[in-house]
Amino acid sequence: MNQETIKHSELTFQAMVESTPNAILLVNKEGKVVYLNNQSEKLFGYTRFELIGRLVEELIPKRFRTNHPKYREGFFDSPSVRAMGSGRDLFALRKDGSTFPVEIGLNPVVTADGTLVLASIIDISERKKAEERFRLVVESAPNAMILVNQNGIITLANNQTEKLFRYDRSELVGNKLEILLPERFRQNHPQHRNYFFANPSARAMGAGRDLYALRKDGTEVQVEIGLNPIDTVDGLMVIASVIDITERKTQEKIVLRQKELEVKNKELEQFAYLASHDLQEPLRTVSNYIQVIEEDFGEELNAEVRNSLNTIKSATNRMSILVRALLDFSRLGRGKTLSYADCNKVVSDVVSDLESLIKSSGTKLTIGKLPRLNSYETELRQLFQNMISNAIKFKKEGIPPEIRIESEKLGEQWKFSIQDNGIGIDPMFHERIFQIFQRLHPEGMYEGYGIGLANCKKIVELHGGRIWLDSEKDTGSTFHFTLSDLPI
Amino acid sequence: MNRSINCIMLIDDNSNDNFIHDRVIKKNGFANIVVALTSAIDALNYLKQQKEKDLVHPDLIFLDINMPGMNGWEFLTEYDKLDTDLQGKIVIIMLTTSDNPDDLEKARNLKALSDFKTKPLTKDMLSEITVKYFPF
């Protein structure tokens, strides 16, 4: 190579170096800067005259300086193209004393002045900032978010991940993702992951399969997982967003059960309706033909036959009423409408409906202040009507009924009490009286079909409450029931 | 005795009910003729063939709901399709065991239907119907 050629190639090299967007430094074996390009001047804040001949360590923050000469010597002992620092975060120092993160590539360059190292320096402040922003976004996400590389290693996990899986993130980062999977899913998972990286796109994981994750304590949690491919400097990764859906699944089950129950209730109601409808027909035929006999042969019948006919007639009447009561019971609360009802008004309406009964029996009513609450007013009216008329009906012979109605707030509910001075109820019957068609007294003693209290119980339950009583035989009864203030 | 009702038609698959209803109508003289049919299809055919067979045109029909084959509701749908001269001025009253509120609601919305009564048909019911729908 003649001087001309050498000169020319040096110029070409210089022009190339000047035009690269990276900062480039040439450093000799002694660690002295022998050349720097325009980008380096800008990046470090020195002019090339200030820097040439100075030790490269002056561009390194003090805390990293000590070991650098040793690394430098190592490089010259076995010069090769490599990235500097391998995995360590590298920082550079400006003339003004500020530091910034860098990435540095090293290249041995053989020149007439011996082997030099060409350092190509990239300011990665922006990238670091972006990474930090990404980390903050992930951290503040409401879901557990886990960043996983193509080898299935967790590289990032947020606070929610710690909460959901009960691991400290230091136990997760650097580990295989499979530790978060129940044993039975582990084997196939790398295959799924490879498939994802081969066809990266945002998608829900599992597509229809129920997904479960494993906590540190060995418990499992049902999850829903969204996958998103993310291009990072360390290659393509997948960010998994994990939601605990245990609660939702429980809710879904409850809703399903409720729907089943609704269907069953509907069926039952339909059954009761059809049964009572079909039962009414033969009953009607029986009573119709009794009437025919009475009309056509009345005068020819003797007293005994007429008596028998009357018995048949009253039995069919009674059955007809029972069948109808069964139907009413099954339909109770159907088409109910919720409204804000004033119980004072409801009770005073019931009292005026029962006015003649109250007067004839000499009943004394004491009614305390009652609440207003969201309720099914029609049914509520029926409830008070039953309670009050029962209290009058089951009075002690010769003693005018005294009835006291009170209410009190009991937690979220209202508790009502209806106290009477009637015949009382033996505690052994306290459960039974709320069952349909259960009566405690022989026919004829007290009118009734054993349906009123069954209706009351159903109405109270419609209002999310319960009904019970305090009573002994001969000491009067106090019926209690609770009603919820239902949400409208 | 009210003579403005000449003919009453009973449509009910239950012949016992028809017997009793026929009896109460005739016994109390509410109509001259009672046509008792046990199927809604028969009733529809009757109405269609009134002229050719010279059948008596009913003034009042008592119609049951629950019947095998064509039920009361289906009968009313078909009835609506008849020529107006075949329909005449018939008063149709649903007469059924049903006091199902759904049926009541449905009955209220049907123009062809004048009323909804619960079985059995009684003398009082007939008097009331006569006063209301056949005042002359």
From TrEMBL, chain A:
Upper classification of the organism: Bacteria, Pseudomonadati, Spirochaetota, Spirochaetia, Leptospirales
Domain Histidine kinase: residue ranges: 274-487
Keyword annotations from UniProtKB, A to Z: Kinase, Phosphoprotein, Transferase
Catalyzed reaction equations: ATP + protein L-histidine = ADP + protein N-phospho-L-histidine
PANTHER family: PAC DOMAIN-CONTAINING PROTEIN, PHYTOCHROME-LIKE PROTEIN CPH1
GO-annotated biological processes: regulation of DNA-templated transcription
Domain PAC stretches: 86-136, 207-257
Residue ranges crossing the lipid bilayer per the database entry: none
Protein name: histidine kinase
Main enzyme class: transferase
Limits of the PAS domain: 9-54, 130-183
Magnesium is among the record's keywords: no
Top-rank lineage group of the source organism: Bacteria
SUPFAM superfamilies: ATPase domain of HSP90 chaperone/DNA topoisomerase II/histidine kinase, Homodimeric domain of signal transducing histidine kinase, PYP-like sensor domain (PAS domain)
Organism: Leptospira fletcheri
EC number: 2.7.13.3
A GO term, aspect molecular function: phosphorelay sensor kinase activity
Automatic annotation (TrEMBL), chain B:
The entry's keywords: Phosphoprotein
Record-annotated Response regulatory domain positions: 7-134
Pfam families, per database record: Response_reg
Coiled-coil zones: none
Record PTM 4-aspartylphosphate, positions in chain: 64
InterPro entries: CheY-like_superfamily, Sig_transdc_resp-reg_receiver, TCS_response_regulator
GO terms for biological process, alphabetical: phosphorelay signal transduction system
Name of the protein in its database record: Response regulator
Organism name: Leptospira fletcheri
